[in-house]
Amino acid sequence: MAQPGSSKIVVLGLGGTIAGTAARAGDNIGYSAAQVGVEQLLEAVQTLPVVLAGRALVTEQVAQVDSKDMSFAVWQDLALRCAHWLSDAAVQGIVITHGTDTLEETAWFLQTVLQPDKPVVLTCAMRPATALTPDGPQNILDAIAVALDPGAQGVVAVCAGVVHSARDVQKDHPYRLDAFTSGDAGPLGYVEENTVRWVKNDRKEAIPSMKWSLDAIKNIVSTTPWPRVEIVMNYAGASGAMVDLLVRDGVQGLVAACTGNGSLHQDLETALMRAQAAGVKVLRATRCAQGRVLPKVGDTLPDSNGLSPVKARVALVLALRAGQSAGTA
Ligand code: SIN
After folding, report:
1. Residue of the nearest CA to atom 7 in ligand 1?
2. Does the C-beta of 181 come closer than 6 Å to ligand 1?
3. For each successive 10 residues of the chain (329 residues), what is the average pLDDT?
4. Which of 37, 119, 238, 302 is within CB 3.0–4.6 Å of 93 for a Cys-Cys bond?
5. What distance in Å separates the CA atoms of residue 151 and residue 298, rounded to the nearest whole number?
6. Residues 191 and 232 both lie in one domain
7. Which domain holds residue 159?
């Protein structure tokens, strides 16, 4: 939460459609993401001084990527810059301008490694900066309103006036401006005319088993390759062939995007159990857009504790990375 005397908001630019440009102003889909610098993006938000109410704004371009190309290297840089700014007592919160495509993965990565008390707010846009009516400026304004709100803490995402938790946020539409959902968990709140209306009281996202110190974050910036974790999906006619190939290729972790409540085609399940017996870490998540895999007696493959397949992959990568640092993986 904001500390007394906090007087700065930091905006970190990462790229995405929010920083995208098209050759034609009316083109909302044929554009190049990650073209406009974060400082220029903020210049387009004319009412920013009203929301900032005298607080200083610091901007930093951490990367300029289309988030479909998100990499561990960018995540490392981002985590370090966030840790740096969070440790500055004058900083009230951080806003990150990000692409929508992998925003939910970055949110979960940052929440896990930073577990910040102060707000770290990811925002984005579905239309490029050159659109006739771009959604980026309003999303930035809303994100800053959230970062300044005394009730905000931890990593959250803000898009189309809705505040989502890092755990629940999920892109569920490829075109609509309101492209994110919190699924059946529901959003944390809404931003209305620069004011946040929280609809959930319990907004602290605890990840008890893993708190990374700044030193640990520095450790992840090592030359050791990141653990290889892949996602395999269950579907009609699935087989174990992909799993066997991946194991032969040295995969260290596998997330199964299962059908329903963690069910798997028997051939895929057998291959995953073989992989697990060979030392590969396996997690089961559900490919259903809502809900979670509910553990039951007799499960032989662990479930993802409610995380979606892509977030379970982030969790597995970090768990294996922590094991690498500790010399146990
Ligand atoms: C991206 O994810 O960087 C491009 C797509 C988007 O931001 O909507």
Report:
1. 99
2. no
3. 71 98 95 98 95 96 98 94 95 98 97 93 98 97 98 97 97 98 96 97 67 59 83 98 98 98 98 98 97 95 96 93 63
4. 119
5. 42
6. no
7. 8-198
